[in-house]
User: What shape does this take?
Amino acid sequence: MVRTRRIWVTAAAVLALAGGVSGTTAHAQQAPAAAVSDGKLPPGWHIDQGRQAPQLVWRSGRRVPMGDARVEFRADGRLLGAPRPERDGHTFRLGLDGAPTGALKNLQVWSGGRRLDTRPGAEASGPAAAVTPPAQLPANPVDPGKPGPYRTRTGSYRLRSVRLPGFSVPVEMQAVVVAPTGVSGARPLALFLHGRHATCYAPHGGSDDASGAWPCPAGTLPIPSHRGYLRDQQLLASQGYLTVSISANGINGQDWQAEDGGAQARSSLIRLHLAHWADWARDPRHAPPVVREAPRADLSRVLLIGHSRGGEGVNRAALDSLYPPPAGQDGYHGKVRWHVSGTVLIGPTVFGQNPVPDVPSLTILPGCDGDVSDLQGEVYVDGTRAVSSGKALHSAVYVIGADHNFFNTEWTPGQAQAPAEDDFSDDPDHPDPVCSPGAATRLTADQQHRAGSAYIAAAARLFVAGDDRVRPLLDGSGRRAPSADPARVLAHAVGANRGAGFLPDGKVTVTGGRLCSAVDPDPAVACLGEGTTGVSPHFAQWETGREAGRHAIALHWTSAGSAARIRVARPVSLSGAEALALRVFVPPNSRGTALDVSVTDSHGRRATLGRVRVDGLPGSDRTASYWARELRVPLTAAHRAGLDLRSVTSLDLTPRSGSGRAWLMDSWGWRPGTPAVRAAGLPRVDVGRLTVDEGDSGVRTYHVPVRVSGRGSGQVRVYVLDPATGTAKDRLVTVGPGGHGIDVPVKVRGNTRYGADVPYDVLVKAVHGAVVGSYRGGVTVHDDDPAPTVTVTPLADRVTEGSALKWRISLSEAADTDIGALFVPVPVGSGGTELSTKDVDPGWLADVSGAAPDPERPLSQVDGLYLWLDVPAGRTSLDVTVPTVPDQVAEPAESVAFRQTDDGGNPLPGGLALTGTVLDAS
Assistant: This one.
């Protein structure tokens, strides 16, 4: 199950109940509770009584398609947790069984860096100015997007389903194969894995009938997401590659309960398929017909391609193939009989932010991604810096005008078997200047897919075939693949033949600029502070509100000529480099930023290398367009000035435009070529989770389970989350196999009072010389005491209008957590007259439901009216009231009844009931 920080709320204004059923067990919340700042939850939010604990529920007015980015509840900017989606596509529930802190103010729903609980474009003040695409880059002499000479054959196979750790339902082993014909010898294998999408659809239904169920209910069919890459497979097969695209609906239907979002399960599934291909290559007699008829697979040359959560899955599979995961977490337990030559990650998630450093990668970033809209996949580039030797090329290509779904034809309207949609949600009243259909920068589905195919083929040709002629398409050299036209595709990279350089995450001092933090709640410290429109993929947020060790250098100038100097603690060597490469970004839609680039050696000699010019990407408030362009200046001037390039101490950036802003991500010595990559022997860190009973007495100390395997030693950063506040403390830790560098003790004090389960969570991220698999874990303390019995005693359940109905809620004993239950009004018995909206205080009615008295109607017919009982921790009783108002109308006695609800908000049979009668005052 996903373990996330929980928070609780007590809405003071809803403490109004009625009734008299005793002996019912209520559920609990962790103390101290805090009031919602305005006395009620915002529209669309409510609290339900869960089977194990209360739940915070948000219902969207429009369907939220099942996607790859996690849906998150936040309050006042803090992460509350990742809710569980219901099958209706509208409702999301977050269990409230953990640590509360502070008022639950400014409730928001986020996913992949975008708000879900506001209408797209709702904050737009007027029509946005049109945006034009940048000029086309020069063509690369070699275009990998052109079909090859081979014909292709397509078929499929289905094997016995498999059980994966943590999933209760078996996962399918199904795939579609596209193979070249008329070739000789073994062929490299390209394996595709789709992302998280709806799993089932009704053949004659609409998008509302699609669901994430697994297995598919009667009357519905599986969505064939794995068949959405046939065009890519056909292109690669025509060039001589054997291709297979595997299905993962069984994971998509269950990964909400996985702490890592299903990354380990996807890795297991990939490696189970690869193991079969290794068996079939050795002895094809037992292979499915489509495999027997295909060329033999060369498992020493494997390319893994993953879309969205599939991208995180192939990254984990590459990691697991080099550094084996813990057996208890893994679904594959055989030998590794393959070599992963590279990965392609299309609009990927990166929940763990743990890219594998020594396997070359290409990350495709869709500029109009409406699912993983923060483009967090940039971490697969930035997150590899300084982790290992740096010889593997890690490239990101930014596809202007591409959305998330159209790389898969089964997620594309007009091409898919099941209902599909453009994930960039458009508001006709506020069209987006970059991404709305018809915008000059927006690609059609076919244009986007063609561009994706070309760059997948480029990665295959570079990583697998070793053809360095296509490298300029991927490494920031400013070339394009004409087969991808008219798409504008920009690239930058780290690794390969880049040498030493200026890395803001290292020990540097900055003058004339600001060393800023990628993730920090303080606008004065954060790289993108207040007033920024849009977001940056480089600064994608992780699970903590503040991160150490992720920096950039921010420049802000009001006149030309004021230099920013970056000075390193230890001189760097640019010897052997042809140029200095810089990754720089400027505000979206800006034009003409010019910077002079200078370096100084340890002897004080300084040379201006040249001037670079950079324009901003097309962007809006809904895009992640603060993305770095790669700029290069030759080192000729440094040689001419006699600089000692073996000992460079500082880098100067001098603005030559009148005013502006810019951010430097890093700078490296660069020369052409793609070196051979050999994976280093590194220690691997995996964090587990231990669940323990609280016990009745005494203090016990438990330790977060951490496994360190592999070879050598390295450094990781460990974040320990406070369960009471949600804040994180971090420290840099040196780890090695069998060592005890990561030791997080948790003291558990036993008692006999009822309380909530408390998670003590730990996060780990690689820094240098190490890799991380399972990045999240901890100790969960399970409260093993019975809940107190709740009774209701009427104090004033028969009153004259104008007086208040009043009851006392009592517990059999005090608890260490708030005890809460949700109630809804129900119709009174036959023949009775029900209390109406004009019989109760209008302020009270507005507080508990947001409703007005008019038109007059029985309380049981008021939409959104619910009452929340909450006995604070340490107390044993609570008095609650329903205020009534007098009127001048003669009328019979009126009654009201509230009943405790179940998970679905329906009256709970045998639950608490609160009733009262109001008599006429005339």
User: Anything to note?
Assistant: DSSP finds nine helices and 51 strands in the chain. Residues 1-39, 98-103 have pLDDT under 50 and may be disordered.
